[in-house]
Amino acid sequence: MKRVLLLFLLLPGLSAADLFLPPTGGWDAGYEGNAAASAATAALDGNWNHNNPSDSWSGSTSVVYTATVNEVSFLHIHDALTSGNDRKFMFGYDLESLLGIADDAFLDDGFTLHTRFRLPDGQGYGIHNSTKGMFNISQRSEDSFGMSLNSNGELLIGSNDGTGQGTVAATVTDLTAWHEAWLTFSLVVSNDYQVTLYLDGDTTPAFQQTLTALQNGQNIGGGGFTREYTHNYLAFGLGSSAFTGNFDLDFIRFSDALLPPEEPVQAQPEILAVAYHPATDTLTLRWTSEPGRQYDLITTDQQGAVPPPGQWLSLTNGIPAQGLETEWTIPDAGTRLPDPWNLLRIRLP
């Protein structure tokens, strides 16, 4: 029989579906990727509008629809054409009529956007029309920015950068994986804004730089910029007739405030039970957990003091919380847990 001499529980990590904590007080509004109504002025969940220059959706449910894969519900946009209907898609949210944000320069005192998305076929989508991207924000004073993920894995911020290609804010290795972007804007001076990007749950900025907003009618890289609406708006989609691609959106959430992501603060989990079963050579662990979190189980064959991080051996990664308590069974414990010192740890992924 294996002897477990010491067992640790460390703080849990967030699940893949929510890598950032929500802001205190919640979001002003958002869309959770769970509806795909086709009405031009009441699209998706009824709060979005696709009556704009960057959209040609016919309403076909074969190119815009919702799906659920691995318990994640999302909106899928399929852009395979470069002419005719369904060659471009753009959904806009009227920040004025729906949220009462009528300030001509609402970005000045801060705005925050949080979204989770992926490009399921691995084909990127660059900046187009000087600053437009997969995500766009624009105010009535005409200051506008975009954000997109290209085929090189570069997350681009569209602005008045002089090229129309966008500024590289971060790089990801897998376009087909879900990525979370937390983006904030605040005025520095005139048309210059501090743009800050936090990526995939990291509360340290991946990018923070002063960028100049693009104005309506400007052309800095071919294909001049035209605003989608006359009011303040936020928009997302695949809005270029020249590009094709596939886009999955899990959610998009936003607030009319400057809200850096908050550091996770969680209660220390407690071990509730440890049981070895000789007949099946399994070890079962049970501990307190937080819904929506996940855990890694690691061990070591070193004796004496607790070893440094690089000297632990992985047993199981990404164990999802089962509720307020989580139970996990280690198979083949007699061979998988090293002798003579059996030290287990459940850690932050």
Tally of alpha and pi helices = 2
Query: What is the total number of structural domains?
Result: 2
Q: Spans of 5+ residues with little confidence (pLDDT < 50)?
A: 1-16
- Major β-sheet annotation: 8 strands, antiparallel
Estimated structural class: mainly beta
The CATH C-level name of the largest domain is: Mainly Beta
Instruction: Name the helicity range.
Output: under 10%
Rounded to the nearest angstrom, the distance between the terminal CA atoms is: 29 Å
**Percentage beta strand:** 35-45%
Q: Can you count the beta strands? A: 24
| CA-based gyration radius | 24 Å
Query: What integer is the average pLDDT?
Result: 87
User: Which architecture of the largest domain does the CATH hierarchy give at level 2?
Assistant: Sandwich
Predict the CATH topology of the largest domain.
Jelly Rolls
Shape descriptor reads elongated
Encode the helix/strand succession as letters. EEEEEEEEHEEEEEEEEEEEEEEEHE
Question: What would you note in describing this structure?
Answer:
It is built from two helices and 24 strands. It is an all-beta fold. The protein has two domains: 6-15 and 266-347, Sandwich (Immunoglobulin-like), CATH 2.60.40; 29-255, Jelly Rolls, CATH 2.60.120.200. Strand 4 (37-39) and strand 5 form a beta hairpin. The two termini are 29 Å apart. Mean pLDDT is 87; it is low at 1-16.
Topology:
Blueprint: E1 6-9, E2 13-14, E3 29-31, E4 37-39, E5 42-44, E6 64-69, E7 72-79, E8 89-94, H1 95-99, E9 111-118, E10 135-138, E11 144-149, E12 154-158, E13 167-171, E14 179-189, E15 192-199, E16 207-212, E17 233-238, E18 245-255, E19 271-277, E20 282-288, E21 293-300, E22 313-320, E23 325-330, H2 333-336, E24 343-347
Parallel strand pairs: 1-24
Antiparallel strand pairs: 2-21, 3-18, 4-5, 6-7, 7-18, 8-17, 9-14, 9-18, 10-11, 10-17, 11-12, 12-13, 14-15, 15-16, 19-20, 20-23, 21-22, 21-24
